Amino acid sequence: MVEIIEIPVELTHFQLPEAVQERLQLLLDRQDASEVITQAERREAEGLVELAEFLSLLHLRSQRVMQQG
Prior knowledge:
The protein is mainly alpha-helical. The chain is built from three helices and no strands.
């Protein structure tokens, strides 16, 4: 059985705030440069990546629903 979840349109346009995006980029750049990052920084980066991926998926799915609707 498929369950349909309604999502407010405003939420589908939500993006990471600029400061959060900059922090994520800083952590990823440090990691790419083979700099040592702490375990807490690694968990922070992983969480931010997951959030960014979720928001991207939400946006793509909302576009598909609007095109079909």
